[in-house]
Amino acid sequence: MLGVAGVAGAVGALAAVATGHNVLAAPPSRPSDNDAMTLSRALEVELAVSDLYATAVAAGVPEDPFATIAANHRAYAQAIAAMIGESASGRDDAVYDQFESQFDSSDAAAVAESGVQIEEALVSNHLQVLGSFEGTDPVELLTAILVVEGRHATVLTDVAGKGDDLQALLGTTDPAATGGAA
Asked: What's this model's pTM, rounded to 2 decimal places?
């Protein structure tokens, strides 16, 4: 049965090529105009998040890891800006304003908990938009960014004092995702 389905798929692909429909064409690598709009929004959010961590450092949280995470987000914004030909400026003030009070604190554990929420939201958002990109370069860049943002969430979970909570470290409340661990 599987062999018949494979042959049918190959015949369909050959028919598409024969009729001028190139179903095997590689996607473009560079971002399309739509990709650039999505990336521009991501750039603004990354700058806002960077500024949030910088606010926490200015308020007195230990520089390690918060200054490093702020620098990472600024670097992500710069990488995105380079890809779309914009400057890395113009943070999303709505995002910054929404979370500023949670980051304007010297309480490292509290700031870390807020950071976990933001990092997990960024990862989730990036995963949602990956499939909308037309170019492969934006997919590669955003994938690299979201992997590190997931790591940020893990580090911040530990800083928040929840390093022994496997579900919190993995960013989930679903026991199935942790093999039933509580």
From this structure: 0.78
- pLDDT above 50 for 178: no
3-state secondary structure of 171: coil
Number of domains in the chain: 2
Q: CB burial class (10 A; 0-12, 13-18, 19+) of residue 53?
A: buried
Spatial distance between the Cα atoms of 182 and 176, rounded to a whole number of angstroms: 10
Range of the domain at 106: 31-173
CA torsion sign for 36, 37, 38, 39 is positive
Q: d(Cα 11, Cα 86) in Å, to the nearest integer? A: 45
Q: How far is CA 172 from CA 113, 118, 154, 157, 160, in A?
A: 14, 14, 11, 12, 16
Q: What is the pLDDT of residues 24-39, one digit of tens each?
A: 667 789 999 999 999 9
Which residue, 35, 31, 45, 161, is CA-closest to 94? 45
**Is residue 20 located within the same domain as residue 106?**
no
Using an 8 Å Cβ cutoff, are 152 and 69 in contact? Answer: yes
Q: Whose structure tokens read 């018949």?
A: 4
56 part of a folded domain: yes
Q: Looking at the domain assignment, is residue 181 inside a domain?
A: no
